[in-house]
């Protein structure tokens, strides 16, 4: 049987198997190799098609009998297929990156392009900028002539491209450079796909800049590789459908809203409806501290509680494919928004304040709910993607959320 798969050194993070299986390659698998195993593996006679990832994209080049124009142009190989003369190396990262840029409406033509990172991933970005007719291409490295200490001299850049792992899970929220420091910026691209929205992309979103994460590139390069494996067209026609399914599988459903509005009950209904794991932030705080919410407020007041809430929200926001139920005041801490938004679609559960439950909720028992709602409403509106009315049954609200989530065309970036 012909061998199909991804070769690399550490592959536990890879999404390649589900993508290629969705494209029709049922035999596709992950193949972890040590450097000394690489050459002997590539002499196997049953290779049907391989993808190559770090650290071997350059190492395989001399082991290929032929190099396609794409591999020569980029300077690395990410796809290998057999040919009559032996193995032929291609690079579909170039196609994938160009696809992601077009999809986001980002043009490189005539523009100054700033590429963050000088490693292997930057090669496809540089090749794309050359092909697309960029006016100027600057590669920023840690120690080269153009580096992060003197990057300010390139404030006139039009497009920013991150090819480094900065901001990738589990180091979510780290920002290498800020798009707001580039007044002419007209587009932002990040090759990272986990989280769906890096801090880099969320800054671009806040500035209303066209932007793309790494997931469209990942799926598009896989589809192009699949067409090389089979020698047939058609895989690229599946890109958008696979991208939608992957996004929806990765993205969290996040519930916010006033204390007592029904978030917990709706969250349980959603978990039952979707089969997704449920994370209750208040419950996680109780587990982490061994104290009830009431005891935490009695001991350290709202200040201590908000700190604990921020910590647990940061942990929950790194998850994928979950239902996340937040406390009513999660919106009072600005840092909770990026934590929830990076991998989530945020639903604001609205309910008449007269119907809100108060029992077991220290701030609800202590104050006027109407006043609290007036204060928090702008914060809920700032956080939310969608508002859902919980005026009938929790099951009905859950079904409305699930329907919206499945029909949404713009989950993720």
Would you mind describing this structure in some detail?
The strands form three sheets. The chain has a six-stranded mixed β-sheet with strand order 2-1-3-5-6-4. Strands 8-7-9-10-11 form a five-stranded parallel β-sheet, sandwiched between helices. The protein folds into three domains: 3-93 and 218-241, Leucine Dehydrogenase, chain A, domain 1 (Rossmann fold); 106-209, NAD(P)-binding Rossmann-like Domain (Rossmann fold, 3-Layer(aba) Sandwich); 251-407, Rossmann fold, CATH 3.40.50. Helix 7 crosses helix 8 (239-250). It is of the alpha/beta class. Helix 5 links the parallel strand 7 (112-116) and strand 8 (136-140). The protein is built from 15 helices and 16 strands.
Give the N-to-C terminal Cα separation: 38 Å
Shape: globular
Q: What structural class results from the helix and strand content? A: alpha/beta
Number of helices: 15
From the structure above, extract its key features.
globular; 39% helix; alpha/beta; six-stranded mixed beta sheet; 3 domains; Rossmann fold; 413 residues; 16 strands; five-stranded parallel beta sheet
